[in-house]
Amino acid sequence: MTDDTVGRVLGTARTDAERAVEKALGAVTAWSGRHIRYAPVSGGLQNSNWCLTVEGAPSRYFMKIPGAGSEAFIDRAAANQAARLADSLGIGPGMVLFDAGSGVEVAEFLEHYRACTTGDLTRPELAHQAIALYRTLHSGEPLSLTKTVFDMIDEHLDQVRELGAALPADTDLILAEYAAARKALEATGMDLVPCHNDSKPGNFLIGSGAGALPMKMIDFEFASNNDRAYDLAVLVTEMFSGERQTLELVEAYYGCATRPLTARVQLFTALADLKWGLWGCLQSRLNQAWGFDYHKYGLWKLMRCRMTIGDHRWPAWLEAV
User: Which of 126, 130, 195, 314 is the Cys-Cys partner for 226 at CB 3.0 to 4.6 Å?
Assistant: First the structure.
């Protein structure tokens, strides 16, 4: 993780974003009266992220300030619980502070780390490290929030209707196959474990120097108890995994790549694209200030979902689970 600038001294804010940081820092009574510098950290889409240097502290800190509109999707208390679980399991940064009222979170700043790229995760050794992180997270104590991908999709569909978000003309076809996949998966029983639910490459951090630092996970905003196969499915969609790599990762996670397991992951890949496609289309209605074309992103995800359900093997995957 790298900060963009040397930073500003507390009390010298010039912009709305900097004033928001200083307001959040003012609520941290343990740091009252200390000399503090803060600098923006790049990479956040929904939130405002900052690197803090606090007088007398043994290391720097990472502060996350929730973005406007993110409360429609994120339970901050549940996200912090998941982050603390990852900390306790040794797979996430150390958690320092959390303000339940504002959702502001302060964590250890992971020195000498950088965010993964999609290219990084095509390297088998890094992809397998990500799988190992999921195996560890999934072994943890259940979270207080259970929210399956079905709950997420249904919530987004309600929000689409409420906000009038624009969706593709073939959405009804996609939703019919969603119903079929849900019926097949629920009939087998949901394997609920603590899940990250947001496996984009940037949420995996690797050592940026010569040392052999262990891979870490960050950003638990969408975490909940969910089916473990869904976490794996989101990972392979974000990695653009080919069929061979997907089978290798299924085997790495489960210890085998049986037909029912691979079919389960394939069905969840379509549902992952449906969930994030709806999310992207909604974001374009909720906030125009994040500098990202969310509607285009959402339509692309929904197009890939349509491609998966149009695969000639889709009926066989429905039967195999």
Answer: 195
Query: Which residues in the chain belong to E strands, given as ranges?
Result: 8-9, 36-40, 48-54, 61-65, 95-98, 105-108, 113-115, 192-195, 204-207, 216-217, 224-227
100 sits in which H/E element:
none
DSSP 202: G
Q: Which of 109, 126, 148 is the last residue of a domain?
A: 109
In degrees, rounded to 5, the angle at the alpha carbon of residue 182 between the alpha carbons of residues 180 and 187 is 100
**DSSP H or E run through 260:** helix 259-286
Residue 5 has pLDDT above 50, yes or no: no
Residues 61 and 34 in one domain: yes
**Could you read off the pLDDT of 214-260 as tens digits, one per residue?**
999 999 999 999 999 999 999 999 999 999 999 999 999 999 999 99
Domain residues for the domain of 49 are: 8-109
Alpha-carbon distance 264 to 253, whole Å?
Answer: 13
**Cα separations (Å) of 42 from 3, 39, 48, 111, 168?**
7, 10, 9, 15, 32
* Residue corresponding to tokens 């200083």: 22
Q: Are residues 122 and 271 in the same domain?
A: yes
pLDDT in tens, 52-61: 999 988 889 9
**Which residue in 208, 227, 224, 205 sits closest to 216, CA to CA?**
205
Encode pLDDT of 87-132 as tens digits: 999 999 999 999 888 889 999 999 999 999 999 999 999 999 999 9
Q: Is residue 291 part of a domain?
A: yes
Length of the chain: 321
- The model carries a pTM of 0.90
Q: Do 320 and 259 contact (CB within 8 A), yes or no?
A: yes
Q: Which residue reads 């997907």 in tokens?
A: 246
One-character DSSP codes across 38-88: EEEBTT-SSSEEEEEEETT-SS-EEEEEPPTTGGGT--HHHHHHHHHHHHH
40 domain residue, yes or no: yes
